[in-house]
Amino acid sequence: MCKNFVNPFSTMTRFHIHSTDYLVILYSFRNLCGGLK
Asked: Which domain of life is it from (predicted)?
């Protein structure tokens, strides 16, 4: 029962962290391309 309650929260947190990492990687990649120019 407790596992079913924690699972959605864990998935939501993991998705949020993944989205944040994606934005950071995209921003860093853009800065890298800008620096190469």
From this structure: Eukaryota
Tokens of 25: 């990687």
Distance of alpha carbon 27 from alpha carbon 34, whole angstroms: 11
Tokens standing for residue 18: 């993944």
pLDDT along the chain (37 residues), means of 10: 62 72 86 73
The CB-side HSE value for 1 (13 A sphere, CA atoms) comes to 0
Query: Is the whole-model pTM more than 0.85?
Result: no
4 vs 14, 20, 21, 36, CA distance in Å? Answer: 16, 25, 26, 48
